[in-house]
Write a structure and sequence with these properties.
215 residues; mainly alpha; Rhopdopsin 7-helix transmembrane proteins; two-stranded antiparallel ribbon; 2 strands; elongated; disordered C terminus
Amino acid sequence: MFGLIIGVGVVGNALVVYVTLTCRAMRTTVNLLLLNLAVSDVLFLVVAVPFMAYHYAADNWLIGDVACKMAHFVLYVTVYVTVYTLVAIAVVRFVSIVRSSRSPTPAPGRVAAVVAVVWVAMLAVNSPLLALYRVKAYVASPDSVPYYFCALRDHERHGPPLFILFFTFTYAVPLSIIVTMYLLIVRYLVARRHRLASQSGENGDGVINQSIYLS
């Protein structure tokens, strides 16, 4: 099942990357952000998912500390990059629709700079995870074989804060920003529709009055 997920995901996202890079017409602002989503997904699929599959299939974690640290580090980084790329898409759409007369749509160069900042920031913010995760051993009895597993070094101390931070900054805060952006877009479009309808009605009344006057 994990192999199927990896295969379908890599092929689908690779096609997105290929089309966006080879077709000049596809290199729009939003499509560049979607390209970043595809790259993040590919990295997640080829690095994090195989470690997940190993975790469920194997009886013990026997591939060392480095694999343990990298699996969780890549998992967290790609999730953060994906979420804040979606936030950037919402902001770009807001600027393109609501602020189009005041500020132009961000140029692809600026979008590339935003993508680079997101990657650097998420790599830096999640770097402490490399020290928090390690391979631990559980021994049921002196005569039993140790059970090795990949986990937080001190789950009681680091687990709850890590969960709260992850929930806040990958769900609550991004969701609030995205919902706000799209609600503002909807409000703008509804107000514009009413304004255009009013202008159309006024123009229609003017034409009727002019026709009566001429007759």
